[in-house]
Design brief:
Chain A has 383 residues and is α/β, with parallel strands linked by helices. In chain A, 39% of the residues lie in helices and 11% in strands. In chain A, strand 2 and strand 3 form a beta hairpin. The longest helix of chain B has 18 residues. The chains are: A alpha/beta (383), B alpha/beta (140).
C-alpha cells in the first residue's frame, strides 16, 4: 500500500476528485467510471456510467445517499464482457457486497477497478430530497458531514439524520479497494489522501497519473477508529433493544406485523442475487382446500400465509453474507426494522464461522464449505 | 384428554438414513408412528426453507437424517447440511424459538436399530417440550 496526498484547490474537494477521475479516464487507467452524479432536479444522486470526461460535471464521488447498491450495478456491468475497464466509485458497504458477489460468481474482477471512498454515512433518499428542496442545500448536507471527517465526529445538520444502517456501521473505511479516497483525519477543504493497492501501483506510475510518495497516514486510521468505536456502541444498543423486544416468534410477528409482502427488502438486497427466487416460484402454491384445513385447525389464519417463512428463509439464505448496507430498511414501505433484524441475526451466524462478509476475496462463504471436525454437537454428540 | 402426540417431519437421505429406516422395518424394530418421512437423495438437498416450512405449518419437530461423515454418496452433502442446520438453529434460537425441535442425525443403512432408537428418543423429547408454539399463532 502506498499513498499520496492530493491538494484541494478553492476548498472544493469534489472538484479535486472530479479532476482525479478525469485523469483516470484520460490516461486510460479505466475506460469508464461508475460514479454518483447529481440529478438535474437537484433531488439527489444517481450512479452514472461515464465515458466522456465532460460528463464528470456534477459527479459527486462523496454523494451522501445510496439509492441502489452499486454492487448490483457492478454485477450487471462485469458479468459478461464489458469491453473496457470500469472504475467503480463505491462506498465501503458496496465494496463489501462486491466481494461477496464475486465469491458467488456474480461479479467478475477482470475488468473492474474498485475506488473506495471513506464513508461518512448516507441519508435516506427521501430525506435528502426533502432537505434539498427546503433549501438546506445540497452543499451543506455533504459539507456538514465532511467537516467531521477530520476529527471523526461526523454529525449531520439539524433536522435530518443519517440512515440507521450508517449510524451503526462499523466499517466506514473501505477494504479491498484498488484505490481508496481517504477523508478521515484530513481537512477536506485542504487535502485528500489517495491510497493505492500494490497491484495498481505500477499502472499508475507508468501512466504518470500521480507520484505515490508516502505510506498510509496514521492519523486517518486513528480518526476512523474513533468513529468506529462510536458506531459499534450504537450497533450494540440497537441489537440489545431488538433482543429485548423480540423474545419469541410471536413477538417477531408483532414486529413484522405491518409487512405487506412486497418483497422490496429482497429486491434491494445486494446479496439476494438468485435470478429465480424460491418466493417467485410456485413451490409453496397450495391447493385451495389446504388453506381451509389450516383455518380449521387454528380457527382462522392470516392470509396470505407467508410472512414468517419469507423473513426466516431470507435470513437463513443470506445472513452469513449480510454486509449491513441497510437498503432493506430504506426499501421497506412500512418502516419495518429489517436491517436491525438481519444485522443482529447475521452478526451471530457470521461469528459462528468466524466469517466477516466482504473482508477477503479468498474467504469462502460459510454455506459453500465446511470443516470435517466442526459442529459435532449439532448431530447429537454429547459435550 | 389423550396424551399429546407430536408430529415429526423427517427428511432422510436415500443412501443411508432412508435405507436405515427400511432396515428398521424389515428387522421389525418397534418405534412410535409419529414421523412422516420425506425421501431425498441427500441430506445436503434439504434447503432450510423446507425445515422452516414444516415447523411453520405445524410439525412439532424436524428430523434430518444423513450419512456418517465421510460416507456421503455425494462426498460432502452431509457436511453442508450440518452447516445449514447450524445456521437455521442459530437464527431460531436468537428469535426465541427452541432450536432443539430440529435434529440432524447420522444414521447409516446398516443402523436400523439406531434409526428406531433415534425416533423413539425424539418423540419422547418432543412430548416433553409440548406442542410447537407456532401452531397457536394465527399470524404467520
Amino acid at each position: 500500500m502506498k499513498a499520496t496526498v492530493v491538494e484541494v484547490e478553492n476548498g472544493d474537494p469534489l472538484e479535486a476528485l472530479r479532476k482525479l477521475l478525469r485523469r483516470f479516464l484520460e490516461s486510460k487507467i479505466v475506460n469508464a467510471v461508475l460514479v454518483p452524479k447529481a440529478l438535474p432536479s437537484g433531488a439527489g444522486f444517481v450512479q452514472t456510467l461515464i465515458k466522456d470526461p465532460e460528463m464528470l460535471k456534477d459527479a459527486h464521488p462523496l454523494a451522501p445517499t445510496m439509492p441502489v447498491q452499486s454492487a448490483r450495478i457492478v454485477s450487471n456491468l462485469t458479468i459478461g464482457e464489458p469491453g473496457g475497464r470500469i472504475g467503480a466509485v463505491m462506498k465501503s458497504c458496496e465494496l463489501r457486497a462486491v466481494v461477496e458477489l464475486a465469491k458467488f460468481l456474480q461479479v467478475k474482477l477482470d475488468h473492474l477497478v474498485t475506488i473506495g471512498v471513506d464513508c461518512l454515512g448516507t441519508y435516506e433518499v427521501k430525506d435528502y430530497a426533502r432537505a434539498a428542496e427546503e433549501k438546506q442545500g445540497a452543499d451543506s448536507l455533504t459539507g456538514q458531514l465532511l467537516k467531521g471527517a477530520k476529527t471523526g465526529d461526523v454529525k449531520p445538520p439539524d433536522g435530518i439524520d443519517l440512515r440507521l444502517a450508517c449510524r451503526m456501521c462499523e466499517n466506514p473505511v473501505p477494504i479491498n479497494a484498488d484505490m481508496t479516497i481517504g477523508l478521515f483525519g484530513h481537512d477536506a477543504s485542504q487535502e485528500i489522501e489517495v491510497i493505492v493497492a500494490d497491484r495498481m501501483e505500477a499502472d499508475l506510475r507508468d501512466k504518470g497519473v500521480f507520484e505515490l510518495s508516502s505510506d498510509e497516514s496514521d492519523s486517518r486510521k486513528q480518526v476512523a477508529s474513533q468513529l468506529i468505536e462510536q458506531r459499534i456502541k450504537t450497533r450494540d444498543q440497537v441489537f440489545r433493544e431488538f433482543k429485548e423486544r423480540v423474545t419469541d416468534l410471536e413477538a417477531l410477528m408483532n414486529t413484522l406485523s405491518t409487512c405487506i409482502r412486497c418483497h422490496n427488502c429482497m429486491v434491494a438486497c445486494p446479496i439476494c442475487y438468485c435470478k429465480e427466487c424460491v418466493f417467485r416460484t410456485p413451490t409453496f402454491e397450495h391447493q385451495s382446500d389446504q388453506f381451509l384445513r389450516w383455518a380449521d385447525r387454528k380457527g382462522g389464519i392470516q392470509m396470505p400465509t407467508d410472512t414468517l417463512i419469507f423473513h426466516l428463509t431470507r435470513m437463513a439464505h443470506m445472513a452469513t453474507s449480510c454486509i449491513g448496507c441497510g437498503l432493506c430498511d430504506s426499501a421497506c414501505p412500512n418502516g419495518l426494522p429489517v436491517t436491525s433484524l438481519f444485522r443482529m441475526v447475521g452478526h451471530e451466524v457470521q461469528s459462528l464461522f468466524d466469517y466477516v462478509p466482504g473482508r477477503d476475496f479468498e474467504e469462502t462463504p460459510p454455506v459453500t464449505t465446511f470443516r470435517e471436525d466442526e459442529l459435532q454437537l449439532e448431530t447429537g454428540a454429547k459435550d | 384428554m389423550s396424551e399429546f402426540e407430536p408430529r415429526i417431519v423427517a427428511f432422510l437421505c436415500h443412501w443411508c438414513t432412508y435405507t436405515g429406516a427400511d432396515l428398521a422395518g424389515t428387522t421389525r424394530q418397534q418405534y412410535p408412528p409419529n414421523i412422516r418421512i420425506i425421501h431425498l437423495m441427500c441430506s445436503g438437498a434439504v434447503d432450510t426453507i423446507y425445515v422452516l416450512k414444516a415447523l411453520i405449518d405445524g410439525a412439532d419437530g424436524v428430523l434430518i437424517g444423513g450419512c456418517h461423515p465421510g460416507d456421503c454418496h455425494y462426498q460432502t452433502g452431509n457436511y453442508k447440511a450440518r452447516r445449514r442446520v447450524a445456521i437455521v438453529k442459530s437464527i431460531l434460537s436468537q428469535l426465541g424459538y427452541d432450536p432443539e425441535r430440529i435434529w440432524l442425525r447420522w444414521i447409516s443403512a446398516s443402523e436400523g436399530k439406531l434409526f428406531a432408537d433415534t425416533v423413539t428418543h425424539m418423540v419422547e423429547e418432543m412430548k416433553r417440550k409440548g406442542p410447537n408454539p407456532i401452531k397457536k399463532m394465527w399470524t404467520v
